[in-house]
Amino acid sequence: MRTADIRQRWLDYFASKDHHVVPSVSLVSPDPSILFTIAGMVPFIPYILGTEPAPWPRVASVQKCIRTNDIENVGRTTRHGTFFQMNGNFSFGDYFKAGAIDFAWDLLTSSQDEGGYGLDGDRLWVTLWNEDHEAYEALTKTIGLDPKHIVRLPREENFWDTGQPGPAGPCAEWHYDRGPAYGPEAEGGDVDPGGDRYLEIWNLVFDQFVRGEGQGKNYPLLGELDQKAIDTGAGLERIAYLLQGKENLYEIDEVYPVISTVEDLTGRRYGADPEDDVRMRVIADHVRSALMVIGDGVRPANEGRGYVLRRLIRRAVRAVRLLGVEDEALPLLLPVSKDAMKASYPELEASFDTISQVAYGEEEAFRRTLTAGTTILDTAVQRVKSSADGGTPVLGGAEAFQLHDTYGFPIDLTLEMAAEQGVQVDEKAFRDLMAEQKRRARADALAKKTGHADLRAYEHLHKDLTTPVEFLGYTDTQAAV
Ligand code: ATP
Ligand code: MG
Ligand code: MG
Ligand code: MG
């Protein structure tokens, strides 16, 4: 089944169960507290919080998502994309736990001829909050799931909230056991999906309680919500790689064609070298994310969404370089990604001229940066080498910082290119300077916002930035390229 068909099957299934199908909203989050749409529920937040009445009791969607917090996972785990699609079904005061569990089981395990995904029910495992007896009953009695496949976890592991007093509730997460080839059997029911064996595919969130004040998950449950809600998210790409019999998310039909093109471009084979494989997956993922993000109107910039886009493109271009190719790469790769995505997103065809101009322009700019930075780095490296006097030559943190700050030269590139010439970098001093710069930028932003920058106000901002929040805010986008 093509990913586009798996997507359509989701929508058809829930439409047949009286859900109103809504199109994906933009990757530019409609909720102003976050940069990108990070989950299917984002457009429905007002209905879940109860601040607006829901126009429909049952909704289904396949939502485009960006999660920058997963950027370092890309290519290294089997399951994380920076861009991915979250299939969702939602109930606002309509069906609750038993209904949501029924739908999940039915869709996952019904045969493909019957409109389901045809997964083997004996391989499904579910993690539950240890006090959720209602969900446990529904799973064991109605579905008949083997109790050995139900893992009961404390609130810290399996409970959703917004980080604020308001709605909260337990989750039921569905995992698919990929078998012994992917790791040892869960011991004591530990299906922690850090490993590859038990793949988390679908999270059912039961918005059930009103929570009070408290840190982390340590808050009182004050009672039940008047209007309970169901909010679910299933990774389309994760279902796709199971159904397509692929090893990971980067090998599905919507992603792999870019890897094939990288093979042609570089003359290297996917599967021949683990580090090259990671680079190829990063390229395929980031090119796709850049395509979709630009398609939704984001432009490269030094902050906010534009900075995330810039970082995606730079990481992709750099990965191509590390595979030994210095020529422009996006003009070859981006059209391939667009062709792989257009079955589900036909609008990409019409906007591709604009999208490609933006992407190619950014690649050009980065290539110039690399050229200028390389000259400066080489000069600095020669200098510290000649003055090392027999000891290990070390490039100062201030120089690495200047390369980053003035020339946009990423620190990992500085580290790698210095190491190639036997030179270390004072990374700690670099990080200290970065932290100092961030601190100043925050204080400046606050001064701009409030017109003054007294310490009390700064502390308040600092608290906002460090308090755990449900959604990924601006801090998440500030890591160095
Ligand atoms: P994981 O533990 O694997 O990082 P998660 O618990 O962070 O996933 P949820 O927030 O529960 O994910 O999101 C709901 C579903 O969306 C997940 O069960 C998964 O199928 C999918 N998903 C989440 N993050 C990604 C991602 N980066 N790439 C692809 N699919 C994802
Ligand atoms: Mg995650
Ligand atoms: Mg998880
Ligand atoms: Mg989850």
* Low-pLDDT stretches: 451-481
Shape: globular
Strand content: 15-25%
* Main sheet attributes: strand count, strand direction, barrel closure: 9 strands, mixed
Structural class: alpha/beta
Q: Mean pLDDT score, rounded?
A: 90
> Which molecules are bound in this entry?
adenosine-5'-triphosphate, magnesium ion
State the end-to-end distance: 36 Å
- Total beta strands: 11
- Structural Rg: 24 Å
**Helix fraction by DSSP (H/I, runs of at least 4):** 40-55%
Can you walk through the features of this model?
It catalyses: tRNA(Ala) + L-alanine + ATP = L-alanyl-tRNA(Ala) + AMP + diphosphate. Its EC number is 6.1.1.7. Its cofactor is Zn(2+). It is an enzyme of class 6 (ligase). Keywords: Aminoacyl-tRNA synthetase, ATP-binding, Coiled coil, Cytoplasm, Ligase, Metal-binding, Nucleotide-binding, Protein biosynthesis, RNA-binding, tRNA-binding, Zinc. By secondary structure, this protein is α/β, with parallel strands linked by helices. It is 44% helix and 16% strand. It has 14 helices and eleven strands. It has helices spanning 3-16, 45-49, 97-109, 133-143, 236-243, 256-266, 274-295, 304-322, 330-341, 347-386, 397-407, 411-420, 427-450, 455-466, and strands at 20-21, 58-66, 83-92, 124-129, 150-153, 159-161, 166-177, 198-211, 221-235, 394-395, 424-425. The strands form two sheets. Strands 1, 2, 3, 4, 5, 6, 7, 8 and 9 form a nine-stranded mixed sheet that branches. α7 (274-295) packs across α9 and α7 (274-295) crosses α10 (347-386). The chain is globular, with a radius of gyration of 24 Å. The model is unreliable at 451-481 (pLDDT under 50). It binds adenosine-5'-triphosphate (ATP) and magnesium ion (3 copies).
